[in-house]
Amino acid sequence: MIKSELKVMETTNEVFNTSLFKGFEPNGEVWEAVRSTVANRLAFDGKSWHETFKKFNSGTYNNQWMVLDYNYFVPGKKPESYLLWVGEQLPRFYQYEDVTDVLVNQGYWASYNVPYFKEVFERSGYKEAVHVNGTWFSYTEAPRAKIFARDQGNLTDMESFMKLMRSNNFKHDPFAFCNCTPPYSASGAIAARRDLNPVDGKGEQVCKPYGAIDAKITNHSMFKRYEFTAVVGPTQGTNDELPVFKWSESAFAKEAPHMLQPDVFNFTPLTFEWKYVEGKRGLDENSENGSVDYNIWEEVFAGDDNNIPID
Lipid metabolism: is it a keyword of this entry (predicted)? Predict the structure, then answer.
C-alpha cells in the first residue's frame, strides 16, 4: 500500500528450466528487494512501476508482480484501462501488460504460483512440468485456479473474502484429489498446508514446512485509510476443522529453523492502519542546515478501543 495509490502484490513462480541460469552472472544487476523498493518510491502508475522494476534484472526471486492503481478505480464505474498491470520475471527476461480487461471481463484476478504469460510459462519450464506431473502446474487447471474460479462468486463482504483466502477443505474438495494414497493433498487449497500431508508422501503429497503462512486483505474504502486486515499462521481450514499448527508437534520441528517464533499459531484476524507522518526529526549537527526532514509510516492497530502502536 503506497501513498501514490498503488497496491503492489506478488506471488512466486518456479523456474524449472535451470538452463536459464547458465552463464548468467548478475554483475551490475540489482537484488529484487532493492528494485521493488525503488519502484515503490518512484512509480506514479502501474506501467511506470514495471518499467522501473525491470531495470537491472537480477534473475532472482522470480515472481508475478501485480500493481493495482486505485487512481483509476471509481466505485460503480467500469474501469477501461490502467487499473491492473501484471508483470513476470525470469533471468534476462521481463514481460508486463495492462490486464484491466481480463479483470473486468473475468470479474476477478487470481495468482497462484503459475505464470500467466504464455512465453514466461514456456520459458520457465511449466509446459514440461504439466507434461510430466499433470495439471497441478497448469494455469487454468491447477487446484487453486479452479477453486478461485468456483468460489470467488460467493464473496459478499470482507469476512467471506478472508474465508476464501484461508480456505482449505482438502479431504473433501474434489479439486484437491490426486493420484496418491490417500487420494488427496493438503496442497490442493487456496491456503495450502503441506505439513498435513503424510510424512512419507511424494509429489503433490510431499510433507514439508510449506504453504500459506498468512493472509492480508483490503478493499477500496480501507485502502483510502491505508488499512488492511491480516492474520498470521497456517490456516485452520474452511470450517476450522484442521489442527492448529504447532512447531513442537510438527514432523520437522528440529530440521526447520524457527527461532523466536511462537510454538502455537492460533491467531485471529486483526485490522491495521498505517499513518503517514511528515515532520522534522530535529537537530542534526552533521547536516548542512542543522535539521533532517523525515517521512515515516507508523503502524497502528485499528481496534474497538484507541489505536495502539505496534512498534
Answer: yes
Evaluate whether residue 310 is within a structural domain.
no
β-bridge pairing 227-232 and 84-90: unpaired
147-205 residue pLDDT tens? 999 999 999 999 999 999 999 999 999 999 998 888 999 999 999 999 999 998 888 88
Question: HSE (CB half, 13 Å, CA atoms) of 234?
Answer: 24
Amino acid code (one letter) for 309: P
Helix (H) or strand (E) holding 159: helix 158-165
Q: What digits encode the pLDDT tens for the residues 250-293?
A: 999 999 999 999 999 999 999 998 876 665 444 444 545 444 44
Question: How many domains is the chain built from?
Answer: 2
Are 128 and 157 contained in the same domain? Answer: no
Q: 141 — phi, psi (to 5°)?
A: -110, 0
What residue numbers bound the domain in which 80 lies?
A: 1-139
Residues 111 and 194 in one domain: no
